[in-house]
């Protein structure tokens, strides 16, 4: 593409399967295993699943293609990509994407630290041991309220993420993904085999698979659409940066479809892994965010071999958290590498260190230290709300509008060509590419604005 210079120091994917597994790992993350089951449980089970599948294939795939195409066409970080394709004004949204990634990393690694701690407790056998009169809710509240312990676990998870990125694209991210992603799916299948064979689990399977259309409300539709759009690691520069490491010989559209299918499969497996077990033990499926750290330990305690399956579950949760956290830190490091020609090691350490400092208030948001409240929210809640409900929708909307309306005329045909692996070929762009353009121009922006409006002004229906 004219005016785009490839930084030879930034690296490329070594293989197509490496990219697919790395991008799928980014998309799966804690969202698929931690968030999807409780959102499905709170929104009617099968009804939510049906809406989610329609949204992820109808809109989510298109938005992923847009970010990957922008990244591959420019071979640079989010700021450079938006500036190259749209001009200096559009670079604001590149900075917004990086700021979103920085804030997300600062509180995401807090939850990653909880996972490290719960895995240690599960392996040592202390997770399912309660004192007389104690509950798993009290156990979790005491666990996250320990300032020193929370900060140590937060830092340990950040160190794990940093150690992976220091290996680079091929030897770090790609090599990790080739090992951890197959392991993740194997462990999920082990958990499903135990979950669906519990007495009473069939009710959970029915709840998850059979949609009750009467439970579909405008709020359910918005929740499903929002989760579908933002469970694919869009809006913070992760997919855009991963796309920038692709070469022109890779089949981007096919690879993106594989990523979406693997991510969707992971969410389905997470539902089969958790909801039947919750029904089998008579616990409420709509527990909310506490489902993973409060309800599931009670499930493991009630099932034969609970200590073993608790260890397996938190091991796979840690794998998912790591494959996602590296994709959050990577665009931040890529910005320093591309724009300031800083070496990878220094770039990763600077951004990881800054995120650690910014994450201290989030780590201490649970009663163990006085960190204050803003807008009646703790620092952790505020970071989560602002990024998930405001910044991510705006950034995804910007990528869609750039793809549909903002690209400079000199780059337009070539960018569309990247969608179908025909970069530079202005005469053989298939018609389906123009349908993608229509979705980016009209359909996706309308859906994202609806999500943004519902997030800022929550639906009460």
Strand fraction band? under 5%
Residue ranges: pLDDT <50 for 5 or more in a row?
none
SS element count, helices: 17
- Determine Rg (CA atoms, Å): 21 Å
Return the CATH class.
Answer: Mainly Alpha
User: What is the name of the CATH architecture?
Assistant: Orthogonal Bundle
Distance between the termini: 48 Å
Order of helices and strands: HHHHHHHHHHHHHHHHH
State the share of residues found in helices, binned by percent.
Answer: over 70%
Describe this structure in words.
- The structure is a single chain.
- With 461 residues, the chain is mainly α.
- It has one domain: Hydantoin permease, CATH 1.10.4160.
- It is globular.
- The N and C termini lie far apart (48 Å).
Would you spell out the secondary-structure blueprint of this structure?
Blueprint: H1 16-42, H2 46-74, H3 78-86, H4 91-124, H5 136-144, H6 147-165, H7 168-195, H8 201-209, H9 218-230, H10 238-244, H11 252-280, H12 295-302, H13 306-340, H14 344-363, H15 379-406, H16 409-419, H17 431-456
Helix pairs in contact: 1-7, 1-11, 1-13, 2-3, 2-9, 2-10, 2-11, 2-15, 2-16, 2-17, 3-4, 4-6, 4-13, 4-14, 4-15, 6-13, 6-14, 7-11, 7-13, 8-11, 9-17, 10-13, 12-13, 13-14, 14-15, 15-17
Keywords:
461 residues, 0% strand
Task: Write a concise synopsis of the structure shown.
With 461 residues, the chain is mainly α. The protein contains 17 helices and no strands.
